[in-house]
Design brief:
Helix 15 packs across helix 17. About 5% of the residues have low confidence. It contains 30 helices and 29 strands. The longest helix has about 35 residues. By secondary structure, the protein is α/β, with parallel strands linked by helices. The chain folds into 5 domains: about 130 residues, Rossmann fold (3-Layer(aba) Sandwich), CATH 3.40.50.10140; about 180 residues, Rossmann fold (3-Layer(aba) Sandwich), CATH 3.40.50; about 120 residues, no CATH class; about 100 residues, no CATH class; about 260 residues, Alpha-Beta Complex (paralog of FGE (formylglycine-generating enzyme)). It is globular. Strand 1, helix 1 and strand 2 form a beta-alpha-beta unit. It has a 5-stranded parallel β-sheet with strand order 8-9-10-7-11, with helices on both faces. A 5-stranded antiparallel β-sheet has the order 19-20-23-29-24. Strands 2-1-3-4 form a 4-stranded parallel β-sheet, sandwiched between helices.
Length: about 950
């Protein structure tokens, strides 16, 4: 990345080279100069495009202003481009005549023996150096270690880096440049001003925000006034890291009581506080020109997904309302930055308080390999520069990079950070971190397990901890789940929880404390006030990083086993909160039937049921009462229907004119014809079925059921070759699979209209359009149903089979890949490259990418005439998940032996990277898993 773009007239080449050399001598050796043989634009290259790309990547543009520069149309275009890209701009006026305060430089142009003396103003160069240092992204321009913590470790483990760690924050220079450009653009634009930083769990969003972006904004005080980052936790307004804390740190002249009162008044109270901050900054600013535009306030919310958790939703909603009102006006101007997990963005994007406000997004993509090298070696280099002995053995760096490449996945960054911290703590006194230390330590994947084993070893000295391994694990499980590890109710993925230390079961506390000492868990202290105003300090505890839930095998296994119960628990708590917020109206009692039975079954697990609050219990009791009343009425209705049918038989036709009876008659006669006369006019006869040709289509109902395509028999190679880009180990070994008979596959994913027909007949639960991530205005027949589990899909195929009398089912995994490939052996059915506009995924180049599901049939079908077999929605299949294909059937049948806790999904979704929608790509979830990215399609066995 070019840190500085040097704009000059070709007539001033000598001066440009002199300035470049001065910059290099002062520490800026990353300068783009178009006559530079190493970094410039080669002969024959497209000048405008090359300059645009260089200017886009740079962090600052320095203009070498002279009469020649002012007369150059190209130089003026460079200036216009830099302004359009919202770059930081600096001007150096060339003093060809020299002067008493000049600094003499002797330079020769590249390729020339001619030498020339160039004179720049010493004061001008001093001011340029100061300005570039303040604008600089490189960590070397930030003092480290901080004066208040001279012994601070250079590796911070699973904890996010803070503002004082800007000097050891490496690897994200390019996104910082982009974020700075975007923020300067928002500052000059009309309100509202919202920027959302999106990234997968483990991408380092918190460190990027706290140690990367905010410290650099803080140096640009003429343009920005950044408040300390807010983390919602349980109390986004009044918590230890909430809005109150941020304003209290920025306004030392105000008491916390005053600030709290203004926050309670909403935006009308907060806005004068922010105006006070702006006025103080203008008063204290040095060198600001008269009439300078006031700086823009920056409100940053880290881990914004916590705004929507049940335990903090009230204050989270209130903070969003305050932000909505603040960003909508210019007195003072406010930019809100949200850092949020990609899989949680939907709730922020559709949050009611932000309705109608445009949200600019900045994806924080995975780090390139070269950036990881800086993350490994950069902090050690700064630690050594501070006078400490520490080196990184080159072989260790290379092994770490190899292990990252081998499959650390989205957790590469937190695993690397934790491993480096542990190595530093154990070996820093030796003055070097070596490959042998790393191998003894257990490598990247073994770091977390090694820390747990150390905790267990230390537990031997504590008489409160049982000696038996299984007893210890059971105790630890009780202390972690659900207090510190649960399930996100929106993404249905594992989620770290924040618990009060006092809520952790007392018998598990010794083991929990040992995990805190091993830095796997983190504690904090929060202040709360009771009704009388008395302040109480509460210790909270949480996993140090969400990667712990995915990379600690023992905990991951527990979460998978308890997934269904944890999802049920979260569902009850969310529904109870909504019920209470809506005056406990009966219409908000969402648990009934099987869902209620699953909620009541929580009492069979006292460790989980202990997490139910009194309101949750009251809600479940109200649901039980409602269902009991409904059953009584159902029996009465059944009796009434029976009486009415008897009346019809004996001639009481007049009753049929009642609307209720008409509704019941329609239900019996139209939706369930098999019950009365086996009337199935749309169902294929055996003869018609045998006459179907490959790729023929048919539908076995009048409307609102899947259209089916006949897929021919055949043979193919299942799985991916070792050379396929993005391949995972569970996609092999490759094997020949023979599909001996034709079968039928639904042309599209099952739609909401298809699903609702099952709901209307009582065969399926009502997931409603609320489960749909995409455009709610679309006709239900074009919306692929999502937010349905494998169990839901089984309910649908069972109902549809009963309705038609035909063998409908889910596809087997082998059938799915055969149907998806449609004869192709490439990564995607259209080729080996993702291309653009071929599918809907996170990087497919379509209008719906990473936003929402597309309407069914929005992309070209494969050669079998099947739509959306790559991307849009992941699709449930029948098989149980196995880690590879060793022992799998080769006849196309489902593999349903072994551990069936997790079922296979195929095809990838709108929020998945391109490698995840390859024909061979696989994923897996528990059968109760719900997601806005998961749906299904159906298959039908055909008569031979």
């Amino acid at each position: 990345m070019s840190s500085i773009f040097l704009s000059h007239s070709s007539a001033d080449n000598f001066e440009a080279v002199a300035l470049r050399d001065w910059l290099a001598a002062e520490g800026w050796d990353d300068v783009f100069l178009d006559l530079d043989p190493e970094r410039g634009i080669a002969a024959g290259e497209r000048w405008e495009r090359a300059l645009h790309e260089a200017a886009t990547r740079c962090e600052a543009v320095v203009f070498l202003v002279s009469g020649n520069w002012l007369a150059s149309g190209w130089c003026l275009r460079e200036y216009a481009l830099a302004r359009a890209l919202n770059k930081k701009l600096f001007a150096v006026v060339v003093d060809l005549a020299g002067g008493q305060d000049g600094q003499l430089m002797r330079v020769s142009a590249p390729g020339s023996h001619e030498e020339k003396h160039v004179v720049f103003s010493k004061e001008g160069l001093r001011r340029l150096k100061r300005g570039l240092e303040k604008a600089g992204l490189d960590p070397k321009f930030f003092a480290w270690p901080p004066e208040a913590d001279r012994e601070r470790a250079p590796y911070r483990g699973l904890k996010p880096l803070e503002g004082v760690d800007a000097g050891i924050f490496f690897g994200r220079e390019a996104p910082i440049v982009e974020a700075g450009d975007r923020l300067r653009g928002l500052k000059s634009a009309a309100p509202p001003r919202l920027l959302v930083i999106l990234g997968a769990s483990g991408a380092g969003k918190s460190s990027f925000l706290r140690a990367g972006l905010l410290p650099r904004l803080a140096r640009d005080e003429r343009n920005f006034l950044a408040l300390p980052a807010i983390r919602p936790e349980r109390a986004a307004l009044t918590g230890e890291n909430g809005l109150l804390h941020a304003l209290d740190a920025a306004l030392p002249s105000r008491t916390r009581a005053e600030i709290r009162a203004e926050i309670q008044a909403g935006a009308a109270g907060v806005r004068p506080l922010l105006a006070e901050l702006v006025a103080a900054s203008l008063k204290g600013a040095s060198g600001a020109p008269d009439g300078a535009k006031p700086p823009t306030i920056v409100l940053a919310i880290d881990q914004a997904e916590e705004l929507f958790r049940p335990e903090g939703a009230d204050e989270g909603g209130a903070l969003l309302e305050i932000i909505r009102d603040l960003v909508a006006e210019d007195a003072p101007a406010v930019i809100a930055i949200f850092a949020i997990r990609s899989d949680s963005y939907d709730v922020l994007e559709h949050a009611k308080p932000l309705e109608g406000l445009g949200q600019a997004t900045l994806p924080l993509l995975p780090m390139p390999r070269g950036a990881f090298k800086d993350v490994i070696e950069g902090p050690a280099r700064r630690y050594a520069e501070a006078g400490n002995a520490l080196t990184i053995e080159p072989q260790l760096t290379e092994r770490l990079l190899e292990d990252i490449d081998k499959g650390a996945g989205s957790d590469a960054l937190p695993l690397l950070a934790f491993t480096l911290e542990q190595l530093f703590l154990d070996y820093r006194r030796s003055g070097a971190l070596r490959l042998q230390n790393y191998e003894d330590f257990g490598g990247l994947k073994g770091a977390i397990d090694a820390a747990v084993e150390r905790a267990f070893a230390r537990a031997d000295a504590d008489p409160r901890v049982p000696r038996e391994r299984k007893a210890r694990e059971a105790l630890l499980r009780r202390g972690l789940i659900p207090w510190l590890a649960g399930v996100d109710p929106d993404s249905k993925s594992p989620r770290r929880n924040i618990a009060r230390r006092a809520d952790i079961p007392e018998e598990a506390a010794p083991l929990i404390d040992l995990l805190v000492e091993e830095r796997l868990l983190a504690t904090d202290t929060a202040a709360t006030k009771d009704a009388a105003g008395a302040e109480t300090r509460i210790v909270t505890i949480e996993p140090a990083h969400e990667a712990l839930l995915r990379q600690w095998g023992l905990l991951q296994g527990w979460l998978e086993e308890d997934f269904g119960l944890l999802a049920t628990l979260e569902g009850v708590k969310r529904a109870a909160r909504d019920w209470e917020a809506n005056a406990k109206a009966e219409g908000w009692l969402a648990h009934q039937g099987q869902r209620l039975a699953e909620a009541l079954a929580l009492d069979a697990r006292p460790d989980l049921a202990a997490n139910l609050e009194p309101t949750d219990r009251e809600y479940l009791a109200a649901c039980r009462n409602k269902e009991a009343t409904a059953k009584i009425w159902a029996r009465r209705v059944q009796a009434l229907i029976y009486t009415l049918f008897v009346g019809i038989i004996v001639g009481l036709v007049g009753w049929i004119n009642q609307s209720y009876v008409k509704e019941q008659m329609n239900w019996f006669m139209t939706m369930r014809p098999y019950m009365l006369a086996n009337i199935r006019p749309y169902v294929l006869t055996a003869e018609a079925e045998r006459a179907l040709k490959p790729l023929a289509s048919f539908r076995e109902c009048a409307k609102d059921c899947p259209e089916m395509i006949v897929v021919p028999a055949g043979e193919y190679t299942m799985g991916s070759p070792a050379t396929e880009n993005g391949r995972f180990d569970d996609e092999g070994p490759q094997r020949k699979v023979t599909i001996a008979k034709p079968f039928a596959v639904s042309k599209f994913d099952v739609t909401f209209a298809d699903w609702q027909a099952c709901v209307s007949a009582g065969g399926c639960p009502n997931v409603g359009d609320g489960g749909f991530v995409g455009d709610q205005s679309l006709p239900s027949g074009t919306k692929p149903v999502n937010n349905v589990s494998w169990d839901h899909a089984q309910q649908y195929v069972a109902w549809f089979s009963m309705m038609t009398g035909q063998p409908y089912r889910l596809l087997t995994e082998a059938e799915w890949e055969y149907a998806a490939r449609a004869g192709a052996a490439t990564a995607y059915f259209w080729g080996d490259d993702i291309g653009k506009g071929n599918a809907n995924c996170n990087g497919c180049g379509s209008a719906w990418d990473y936003r929402e599901p597309a309407p069914v049939g929005s992309f070209n079908p494969n050669r079998f005439g099947l739509y959306d077999m790559a991307g849009n929605l992941s699709q449930w299949v029948q098989d149980c998940y196995h880690v590879n294909y060793n022992g799998a059937p080769v006849d196309g049948s489902a593999w349903t032996t072994g551990n069936c806790i997790r079922r296979v999904v195929r095809g990838g979704a709108w929020n998945i990277a391109p490698v995840g929608i390859r024909s061979a790509a696989r994923s897996r979830h528990p059968s109760v898993f719900l997601s806005g990215g998961t749906g299904f399609r159906v298959a039908r066995t055909l008569t031979p």
